[in-house]
Amino acid sequence: MPIEYDRLMNFDIPEMRQSYGPAEVAHFGLSIGIGQDPLDMRQLAYVGGLEDDRRAMPAMANILGHPGFWLGRPETGVDALKLVHGEQGMTIHRTLPAEGTVIAKTRVTGLVDKGEGRGALLYSEKEIRDADTGGLFATCRGTTFLRGDGGFGGPEGPVRKPHNLPETEPDHVFDTPTRPEQALYYRWNADPNPLHLDPRVAARAGFERPILHGLCSFGCAAHALLAVICDYDADRFGAMDARFTAFVYPGETLRTEIWNDGSFRTRVLERDKVAIGNGLFKMREVL
After folding, report:
1. pTM for this structure?
2. Is 196 part of the annotated catalytic residue set?
3. Which of these, 20, 41, 57, 68, could form a disulfide with 24 (CB 3.0-4.6 Å)?
4. Is 223 one of the annotated active-site residues of the chain?
C-alpha cells in the first residue's frame, strides 16, 4: 500500500530498553577503529584496555536502543527495498556512562514528498534516556531517502539545508585505515543487513563486494573529531551532523578533514571519494 502521511507521521515505533557494559563499549570502539595504536592510552580507555579508566565513545549513542528495521513493516507503506540512509546527526546532552541501562524512543519527525518518481524524505529522531532517572543522554537524528515513495500527496517541505564547508584547506586531517573484515565486526552493533556481509547480496545490489555500514563510517568520523577537537575527552563532545555521499569498502582508508570552525568531511583515499560530506561538529560546554 502507498504511504499515508498521517499514519506514517504517527507510526508507533516500539520503545527499547537496553543494558550494556564493558564488553559492548569495547566492541563498539574497536569496530570503528579505536585502538589501532595500542600504546595510545587515550584510545585504550575506549576499548577496555585500562582497568582504571573506562569510557564510552559518544557515537555509541547511535546504536543504543536501536528499534530494528521498523520501516520494513508493511503497514508503514514504505518500499523497503528502495530506501537509503541519507543523513545522520547526534547531540550528546550528558556523557554516556561506561555501563548502564537506557530506554530509547524513536519517532518520525518529518516527511517530505519530492514528487512522483523523485522519492520522499523521512526525518526521524531517537531520544536515549537513563532507565532509572529518565535523564536525557542523547538525541540522534536521521534522514532516510525513500526512493520509491514519492507522489503520495504529502508536503513539499521543509527540507533541511546541508552545512556548507569552508572553501579553504582543512586545518587538520585524521586517517582511519579500515580493516577488510570490519563490517563483520560492526554488524554486531545491531545492524545485520546482508548488504554489508554477504557478497551475493552485494553483487545483486551492484557492488563488487559488501560495503561498510554508513554508521561505521560515521563512527570513524566521530573518532577523528573526538581525537582532534576534544583530545579524547568525551565530556567535550557535543553534536555532529553530516550527509552520506558515497559508499566505503572495508579495507579502504578514511581521511577526515576538519576545519577549526567544526566543519568536516570524510574522504576515501583510495578512490578520492567523499563518503561523508557537509559535516558540522559542535563542542559541549563542560559545567
Report:
1. 0.95
2. yes
3. 20
4. no
